[in-house]
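[Help] Beginner question about ligand-bound structures

Sorry if this is basic. My supervisor gave me a protein sequence and a SMILES string for NAP and asked me to "get the holo structure". I don't really know what that means in practice or what format the answer should be in. Inputs are pasted below exactly as I got them.
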Amino acid sequence: MTINSRSYRFARSGGASNLVRCNNTMLSPGPREVLIRVSAASLNYRDLLTLQDINSNHEGLIPLSDCAGTIVDVGTEVARWKEGDRVSLNFFPDWHDGACSLAYLQRSLGGGQTNGVLSDFIVAEETSLVEITSHLTLSEAATLPCAGLTAWQALFERGALKAGETVLVQGTGGVALFGLQLAAAQGAQVIVISSSDAKLERARTLGAWQTINYCTQPEWDKVALELTDGKGMDHILELGGPETYDRSIAAIAAGGRIAQIGVLTGFASQPNILPLQFKNASINGICVGSVEHFKRLNDFLSDQQIHPVIDQVFDFDEVPAAYERMKSAVHFGKIVFDLA
Ligand SMILES: NC(=O)c1ccc[n+]([C@@H]2O[C@H](COP(=O)([O-])OP(=O)(O)OC[C@H]3O[C@@H](n4cnc5c(N)ncnc54)[C@H](OP(=O)(O)O)[C@@H]3O)[C@@H](O)[C@H]2O)c1
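Answer (accepted):
No worries, everyone starts somewhere. Holo just means with the ligand present. The predicted complex, written as structure tokens, is below.
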């Protein structure tokens, strides 16, 4: 079977790269691989960083880590999957279960070292796939592999989040809103900080307990302490980096957990971590998650009937406009591509 596929590829390495459209002929899947018709993909902040990375050598590679689609062909030794199954790919194809390994990072999808998923068709190893829960559309499922799984690992796998605990998430992008939805469903009290009152209003409709505008109230750590009667937050998704870290440390409760996740304000965080010692608080480094984590995330989403927040859907011709929207940070939730 010969299949023609459209994709985007990085035009060049270094400097201000951009993306070019290409046509490819798909190969048949290998014995333990499947061929997937991609219906939807989604954008993460990482994809913006990868496009802008002046040190990368990504020319010719396909961007993006997150997609959802339907299996259209299976290799001769594939037992678990069949044509018609709806699947997502794990961000780390090699991280199936157990502890993370630095070796898994080499093949993370779409990060400028291996091909990603912004393509009509992709071939994937059967062990890297997760079944899509029936209550989600393919567009909704395409938002999960990076942002959803990161919030899940931070709060549930490493954070052991319990009902009644407090959680603070920074901003209203992909990871933050998954953090809000998952934690609220678990019965936690969630504070959302954002630059926009309008976005904070929407966060309340998703279950935010309290909201803080970090532009009009830049000392949001003090506000969070006041709102919790001086106790502080049990969990913080640290997404900002240099401009937010010291406040996260100030706002974390005794015994609390900061999930080290993001670099929204840069890579050179140098927080004073001494207060963590007196608070007996900890920092958990989080890097997306494993296939088994992803399955447990899907089970929770299904049990709680949670639908991811989609900001806007772009079609294949509008990929550059979608990157621009993410760069402008006007989005609320996930930016999705419809490739169907
Ligand atoms: N470690 C991992 O495994 C992992 C996985 C996924 C993502 N990440 C990282 O996590 C971060 C978020 O990723 P994403 O894809 O969710 O991003 P995103 O969807 O682009 O979210 C961006 C939003 O963050 C908020 N923000 C920006 N600066 C802020 C600040 N100083 N304080 C508080 N909020 C701020 C803004 O929300 P408002 O407009 O509401 O202010 C902005 O719209 C990125 O740094 C990304 O690289 C890491």
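A couple of things worth pointing out: Residues 34 and 304 are 30 Å apart (CA to CA). The chain has a mean pLDDT of 96. Feel free to follow up in the thread.
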